[in-house]
């Protein structure tokens, strides 16, 4: 398979959006294993995403960087479905979805280094909307000693001007919420083995005026 989601897992994720009543799908990096996956894999990915009636936002990660050689710069992405939004600005980029009273922000990864700070530059301006941020990187626990690439520190999360921070990079589901900011690694949609092919997704509910809740949905349950 050309990407970590694998075909069956991607289909299950796509199907889960309507099944679970989702307004949007967030894909927080490492959607593909590496930059050399064939165009046919990208085409089938785009076809699947095009089946969703809601917007999908994709943030590049360290396996699918947004650099000069990025697979996202290939011609096949010029024909992407209209509902797919790819974050390409390496200084950060906000997308506005007024119909959902929602702003979505992320910073595309140019290189996976300790100097890259996934939350840097998150805007405070949100037009009275919800602010959901995407970040692909390594959450740094207080007792971590080593310096990792694309670090995300607890005080940065606590100070982030967003309601929800969707995290990618780790392959397990972890709640690293800090202060008033809910921050969650979703876990993976792909299961742990061929006999257990489907994993999980995080479903986030934003309830006015400011309640943010989430739960883990088992994709196997949707079959
Ligand atoms: Mn990663």
What's the arrangement of secondary structure elements?
Elements: H1 6-19, E1 25-28, H2 39-49, E2 56-59, E3 84-86, E4 93-97, E5 102-106, E6 130-136, E7 138-139, E8 151-152, H3 154-159, E9 164-168, E10 173-175, E11 182-186, E12 190-193, E13 196-198, E14 200-207, E15 211-218
Parallel strand pairs: 1-2, 2-3, 5-6, 6-9, 7-8, 9-11
Antiparallel strand pairs: 4-5, 10-11, 12-13, 14-15
Helix pairs in contact: 1-2
Relevant terms:
223 residues, alpha/beta, Purple Acid Phosphatase, chain A, domain 2, three-stranded parallel beta sheet, 3 helices, binds manganese (II) ion
Structure description:
This protein is α/β, with parallel strands linked by helices. It has a single domain, classed as 4-Layer Sandwich (Purple Acid Phosphatase, chain A, domain 2), CATH 3.60.21.10. Helix content is 14%, strand content 30%. The chain contains three helices and 15 strands. The strands form five sheets. A six-stranded mixed β-sheet has the order 4-5-6-9-11-10, with no helix packed on it. A three-stranded parallel β-sheet has the order 1-2-3, with no helix packed on it. Strands 7-8 form a two-stranded parallel sheet. The longest helix is centred in the first third of the chain and has 14 residues, at 6-19. The radius of gyration is 16 Å and the shape is globular. The model has no long low-confidence stretch (mean pLDDT 94). Manganese (II) ion binds at residues 29-30, 61-63, 136, 169.
The stretches of 5 or more residues where confidence is low (pLDDT under 50) are none
Name the beta content range.
Answer: 25-35%
CATH topology: Purple Acid Phosphatase, chain A, domain 2
The ligands bound in this entry are: manganese (II) ion
Taking strands numbered 1, 2, ... along the chain, how are they ordered across the largest sheet? 4-5-6-9-11-10
What is the number of beta strands?
A: 15
Biggest beta sheet summary:
6 strands, mixed
Order of helices and strands: HEHEEEEEEEHEEEEEEE
Backbone structural class: alpha/beta
Mean pLDDT: 94
Question: How large is the count of helical segments?
Answer: 3
Radius of gyration: 16 Å
Under CATH at level 1, the class stands as Alpha Beta
């Amino acid at each position: 398979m050309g990407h970590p989601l694998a075909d069956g897992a991607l289909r299950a994720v796509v199907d889960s959006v309507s099944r679970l009543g989702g307004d949007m799908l967030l894909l927080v990096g490492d959607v593909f294993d590496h930059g050399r996956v064939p165009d046919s894999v990208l085409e089938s990915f785009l076809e699947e995403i095009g089946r969703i009636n809601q917007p999908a936002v994709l943030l590049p990660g360290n396996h699918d960087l947004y650099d000069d050689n990025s697979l996202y710069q290939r011609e096949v992405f010029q024909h992407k479905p209209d509902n797919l939004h790819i974050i390409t600005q390496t200084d950060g980029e906000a997308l506005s979805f007024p119909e959902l009273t929602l702003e979505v922000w992320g910073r595309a990864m140019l290189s996976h280094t300790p100097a890259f700070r996934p939350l840097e530059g998150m805007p405070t301006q949100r037009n009275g909307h919800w602010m959901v941020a995407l970040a692909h990187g390594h959450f740094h626990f207080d007792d971590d000693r080593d310096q990792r690439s694309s670090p995300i520190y607890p005080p940065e999360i606590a100070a982030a001007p967003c309601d929800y921070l969707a995290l990618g990079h780790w392959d397990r589901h972890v709640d690293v919420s800090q202060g008033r900011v809910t921050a969650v690694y979703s876990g993976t949609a792909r299961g742990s083995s061929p006999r257990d092919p489907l994993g999980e997704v995080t479903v986030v509910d934003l309830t006015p005026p400011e309640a943010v809740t989430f739960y883990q949905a088992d994709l196997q349950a949707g079959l």
